[in-house]
Amino acid sequence: MTCTEFLAKMTDFFDGHVEPTLLSEIKTHLGECHHCEVVVSTTRQTIEIYRDNEVYELPTNVRERTISSIMARCKEGC
Amino acid sequence: MTVTAPQIEEQEIHPDVALVELARAGDQAAFEKLVRQYDRQIFRTAQHITQNREDAEDITQDVFLKAYRKLDQFQGNSKFSTWLTRIAVNESLMRLRKRKTSRTVSMDQDVQTEEGSIPRDFADWSPNPEQNFTQSELSEILKKTIAGLAPGFRTVFTLRDIENLSTEETAEALGLSVPAVKSRLLRARLQLRERLSRYLKKNEGLTS
Ligand SMILES: [Zn+2]
B125: which strand partners? Predict the structure, then answer.
């Protein structure tokens, strides 16, 4: 397996969507190829870091505004 | 062997479907529940796509209003959250187009770039690289980094990796094919990884 071939399968590999033969080829490649191993670990960290750190929080007034705008519309007849 | 009464096929009904039914029948409190459940997700999605807080606030409000008005069109063959997300994506792209008057903005824009198709930085990161930054520094880095991606990439990353939609749900929300979502997701992840690496890789002077 080449690095390019591995990359093409990386998304499926992350999702656990690769059949056993391919999985063992991938594992062999990752055992031998430091570059791809780093790409895997740092890509995983990239995903985790975005998941764990909510960068955009809902401003408090938006929920109230949304709800009251729906109520207002309903008064006019939904 | 005991003979059991034939089991009534119990279809698993998503709790949202019940709330939608109630809302359709005029129960506003039921719809309010749905708002409280998904407003954060809709806001984040809109903010990630538009990169503009005011727009994201307006979009959040518009999405739920629109959803409420069009509740009859919700078929129940997709998740309610996916349906909402689809409305949010469309509204967000419309706003982006309005702001960038000279350029058209679509899910296809700028995705032809070669960036991210080949990894270049192979430096390892420290195990908990975020600990080298304060929360607000890290937040700035993450915002700046994802903002640098083309809308077609950052949207796929947001839905799939931040909001945890499945590949199929992401495809449905964006009106893209599953293979298109997969290839954009790979490129988005690799671009983010490459850009974040500037901040998060091990300081070689310290390790060796
Ligand atoms: Zn390799």
Answer: B201
